[in-house]
Amino acid sequence: MLQVVKGRMLQAMHKGLSRQTHAQANVRMLPTYICSTPDGTEKGDLLVVELCQSHVRTMWVTLLGDGNQSPQVMYKIFSMPGDIMQGKGEALFDFIAQCVRQFLAGISSPQHRLPLGFVFPFSCRHTRLDKAELISWSKGFSCSDVEGKDIVQLLQSAINKQELYHVDVVALMNDTVGTMMTCSMAGKPCEVALVVGTGTNSCFMAMAQQVEMAEETSGQMCVSTEWGCFGDDGTLSDILTPYDQCVDEESSNPGEKRFEKLVSSLYLGEIVRHVLTALAAEKALFIGSNVAVLRTKGVLKIQQVLEIIDNEEGMAEARRALEALGLRPSERDCCRVQQICQAVVSRAATLCAAGLAAILSHMCQSQELKRLVVNVGVDSELYRGHTRFGEILQSVTELLAPECMATLLPSIDGTGWGAAMVTAVALRLAAQRHEVDQVLAPLRLSRADLQRVQALMRQEMELGLGWESNANASVRMLPTYVCSTPNGTERGEFLVLDLGGTNFRVLLVRMAKDGIHMASKIYVIPTTITQGTGEVLFDHIIECIMDFQLKHNLTEQVLPLGFTFSFPCQQLGLDKAVLLSWTKGFSASGCVGQDVVQLLQEAAQRKQHLGLKVVAVVNDTVGTMMSCGYDDPKCEIGLIVGTGTNACYMEEMQNVGAVEGEQGRMCINMEWGAFGDNGCLDDIFTDFDRLVDEKTINAGKQRFEKLISGMYLGEIVRHILLALVEKQLLFRGKPCPKLQIKGIFQTKFLSAIEIDGLALRQVRAILQDLELQASLEDSVLVREVCQTVSLRAAQLCAAGLAAVVEKMRENRGLAQLAVTVGVDGTLYKMHPW
Ligand code: ADP
Fold first, then answer.
1. What is the pLDDT of residue 741?
2. CA distance 26 to 105
3. Interhelix angle 414-440/776-811, nearest 10 degrees
4. Which residue's CA is the nearest one to ligand 1's atom 11?
5. Distance CA 635, CA 672 (A)
6. Residue 642 alpha carbon to ligand 1 centre in Å
7. Per-residue confidence at 413, pLDDT binned at 50, 70, 90?
8. CB of 641 sitting under 6 A from ligand 1
9. For 495-537, what is each residue's pLDDT tens digit?
10. Distance 623 CA to ligand 1 centre (A)
């Protein structure tokens, strides 16, 4: 049955969390806008005001940022005049503000800004941590003109009326949240709290994304379940006893707070009383006594019930309590009464356990954990002095949620201390947010920035195309001698080499009526070769070709060969390409200034390979444009975003200064990776970009590429993370030796980390592999850094592309251009956004 109750609680919780069903939910799952638990770095002076049943408590807390080991606390209690609880709202808040003024008058407090946290133990609809409307009064309060109003504003105005202008209400929370924060100190965060007193409630840190009533979508948010109302829609009717029905009917709010009426201390004595009444009527108890007294509401106090269930003193206490009511209990009566009290308290404990188990299982599931280890703060008069309630709560919770290991922690100093923590955490988060924003600000580009990049790209394109101005352009705009895109009728069998990034591939491509057939093999080229001599590099390439031809029985044939060579080349014909410079980590000696077809042929001769017929050397951008063009005739742009980045497009011959002839078009390999090498993008570069650039083998070169492509994004992120650690904004400022290693944060991590949905577990796993112990907040921040870097890369790429399409449109004198861009590169293909 308890499993069933747990299941129903889970259902009720989901109903409360979902935007669609929230309005009808009994368990309302109210967002609190508390998004973090204390981490021990909090410091400063704080003021707390706690509105309690019959008094107001004010508290001054000084935190030293020492892990909250030695907070300095002063407090004062003000009893509340009885008429205030039902009087005017204004009077209530004026009274509270007066308490604050009196309290501060007794402390020689400085006049600097004093943040205040307010514990307001009623259901509120939060829209921010410092903005919350009272939904409805309870617990005997019914002040006028408060329901539906913003409580923070009411308190702040009352405080201002007292001329305490330096006191700033920054957080409002209920007592349950306060409890959770209270237990969240000893280095270990507490992420669940349970309050079972005169009322009952619970709260826990939920994944913000699942709290649909709040706008937050990343990280966590504490949700106040408001589970006292669980069962108000009848879901608990099959476990309600006739005694519970009697208690409910006699209560001030029949039909409401059904769960609360089964577990909270206000009702347990009453349940026992009704059981006794029923048994006495059946003559099973108190034979010969006048039991009329049992009909009086409230004659059995919770304190008595708790003392009766005590094993040693319990029987004697039962006798005392019953005799005080004028009953004459026998030994057996006392024993029975003790059993009844135990049954009622045990049931309360098991029901709380079912609720707690529901919360734990929900957390475990939504964090995609196999096993959840968590601390649970408990504030309950049933729990404190009486081990039995605690023992049952613990063991039944384990039984009902075996995948979770919950450690129950008694709340130490009530909720006031917790409120101080909430307030301190809120201030810490605000300060951190400010610092994080400062770090990331230079990476966030405005529309105007991007338009400027677009205009600069356009300008560089014009310079690059011009015969005389070409030397001064950072974008080289190389003619490719490719003058036409495919029409889809091309046929034949070809050998293809693809060199220019991570892999070297040899392919056999057959273009037939029924489509394109390909066989290929990837060959690894070790860094010792890519950064060795040109002879060794090209010898290696020939060896790979020979291996491939052997495997595919091609040794007897001489197939036309296309060579995708993705480095900047001055092309003198379709089959003649002089290497201008290496990029993307290549630096083989003796190649720059040479015709790469020649280099290939020389190597073939050295290796006595006589059957090479190189027909075309193409850049990978051109290859991409052509292969997309085979299917889509509108494809006149090629874009690569892989290890490096580059683009090509069809330009009017008359604009190509380097090649004779005015008719038709020619594909231009822009080599836009070098955009900015002449300094024109200097104000876009951040310190992080400069750090990345300095550590490359081509420092100062390929500056645009270094903002965009796969070889660099992980490195940029790594440098930002290091800066955040240094500023104590990440990993609690703990030094991360592994993060110092160049290349350790791979660009593919960005893809994994930025996948939408609850990838935070994945973020943690990636960070764990790097020996970084990431809290959930750390993971959220790492994701934000990745998003910022990827977004900038994509935006800059888009600004470049915008320049290209605008130029093509103007070239053709069109109001609107319809064009397809063929895109390749693993970063483009794998990154989720
Ligand atoms: P290349 O550009 O070298 O010809 P690719 O287009 O495959 O080859 O790009 C490889 C680059 O893509 C790698 O250097 C790496 O930075 C990046 N990369 C690899 N996997 C991913 C991924 N899952 N998400 C984003 N980028 C990736």
1. 94
2. 44
3. 30
4. 643
5. 19
6. 5
7. low
8. no
9. 999 998 778 999 999 999 998 899 999 999 999 999 999 999 9
10. 17
Please give the pLDDT value at position 767: 87
Q: Is 831 in the pocket of ligand 1 (CB under 6 A)?
A: yes
At 1-56, the pLDDT tens digits run 999 999 999 999 999 999 999 999 999 999 999 988 887 788 889 999 999 888 99
What residue type is assigned to position 339 of the chain? Q
CA 799 to CA 788: how far, in whole Å? 16
Q: Cβ–Cβ contacts within 10 Å for residue 382, how many?
A: 25
Ligand 1 pocket test, pick from 643, 706, 751, 786 with the greatest ligand atom count within 8 Å of Cβ, gives 643
CB 78 within 8 A of CB 58: yes
Distance CA 211, CA 19 (A): 8
Nearest CA to ligand 1 atom 22: 748
Q: What is the pLDDT of residue 768?
A: 87
- Please confirm, yes or no, whether 411 is among the known catalytic residues: no
Backbone torsion region of residue 613, taken as left when φ is above 0, otherwise alpha when ψ lies between -120 and 50, otherwise beta? beta
Residue 771: CB atoms within 10 A of its CB come to 10
Catalytic annotation on 620? yes
Catalytic position from the list 380, 566, 709, 751 = 566
**643 CA to centre of ligand 1 in angstroms:** 5
Separation CA 410–CA 195 (nearest Å): 10
pTM of the predicted structure, to 2 decimals: 0.78
Query: What does the pLDDT look like over 696-750, one tens digit per residue?
Result: 999 999 999 999 999 999 999 999 999 999 999 999 888 889 999 999 999 999 9
From 45, 232, 620, 824, active-site residue: 620
**CA-based angle 489:492:495, to the nearest 5?**
130
Cα torsion 738, 742, 744, 747: sign: positive
Query: What is the phi-psi region of residue 678: left when phi exceeds 0, alpha when psi lies from -120 to 50, beta otherwise?
Result: alpha
Residue 16: phi and psi, rounded to 5, are: -70, -35
Ligand 1 pocket, residue 367 CB under 6 Å: no
Strand partners, 498: 505, 564
